[in-house]
Automatic annotation (TrEMBL):
Coiled-coil region: none
Listed PANTHER family: MALIGNANT T-CELL-AMPLIFIED SEQUENCE 1, MCT-1 PROTEIN
Domain of life, per lineage: Eukaryota
Gene3D superfamilies: 3.10.400.20
One Pfam family, short name: Pre-PUA
Family matches, as NCBIfam families: unchar_dom_2
Name this polypeptide is given: PUA domain-containing protein
Organism name: Cavenderia fasciculata (Slime mold)
Location within or outside the cell: Cytoplasm
Positions of the PUA domain: 93-172
Chief localisation class: cytoplasm
Length: 253
């Protein structure tokens, strides 16, 4: 789904959405993920507003305390970000792909049935079609993707052909790195400026775009404060060959 997120001028946010809408968002999430009910006071603190950012292509992003926790498309189901899922790993059903499917999952490819039924893969839950699932990888500790089942798990096993799960969010996509945007600057501020690094140019390498965006905002804020920037693109790449935002440097996967 984050493939549709363009992050260009035109995004808008409702920082003061109605209380009724905040309740609807909260109730929809808890209804879809009942295992989160015991943590609801931690996830949705009292007197802390739920912020919904409306992006282009009908994608909505839900934030709490400036942290992105869920997203959806139009009126569809809410998907957790992987960072949120890593905090609550038991919040949703899990499907496991074999080791050979990992590189395809991390490139954004949808998960085929054979990747879920071959040796090393695992399906231990009975789910209908259109179920939100966490995608684990053989030999890994944390979820590598969040998806939506294209068919029931019983059909995945019996048919064992074609697409089994739609890959909605995976390690290294813009949804993975976008949390850092909210730590450095207002999401709407950076999406409304013509001077920000062009997203389209780095669409397939979001961590490189994040590098440039991080540097851009650091320089921008330094200028406003009247101080000299102390971070450069060379500094980032010399310390981190790929990127400080690349999933291989996050120590989670």
């Amino acid at each position: 789904m984050f493939k549709k997120l363009t992050l260009k001028p035109g995004s808008s946010a409702n920082s003061q959405i109605a209380n009724s809408m905040q309740r609807n968002i909260k109730n929809s999430i808890l209804a879809l993920y009942p295992n989160l009910t015991q943590y609801q006071d931690e996830i949705f603190p009292k007197k802390v507003a739920i912020v919904q950012v409306k992006c282009q292509n009908h994608i909505n992003i839900v934030l709490i305390n400036n942290e992105i926790i869920f997203f959806n498309e139009r009126e569809g189901p809410y998907y957790p970000t992987l960072r949120f899922l890593h905090k609550y790993p038991d919040m949703m059903p899990i499907l496991q792909v074999d080791r050979g499917a990992i590189k395809f999952v991390l490139s954004g490819a949808n998960i085929m049935c054979r990747g879920l039924t071959s040796p090393g893969a695992r399906i231990e839950v009975d789910l209908p079609a259109n179920s939100v699932v966490a995608i684990m990888a053989e030999g890994k500790t944390h979820a590598s993707a969040v998806g939506l089942t294209k068919m029931s798990t019983s059909d995945i096993k019996s048919i064992n052909d074609g697409m089994g799960v739609i890959n909605q969010h995976y390690l290294g996509d813009i949804g993975w790195v976008i949390d850092y945007i909210t730590l450095q600057c207002n999401l709407i501020e950076i999406t409304s400026k013509k001077s920000i690094p062009a997203w389209k140019k780095y669409h397939h390498e979001p961590y490189k775009w994040m590098n440039k965006l991080f540097i851009h905002q650091t320089k921008h804020r330094s200028t406003k404060l009247g101080i000299r920037p102390i971070i450069t693109q060379q500094t980032i790449f010399s310390k981190h060959p790929k990127s400080i935002f690349h999933p291989s440097n996050q120590l989670l996967f």
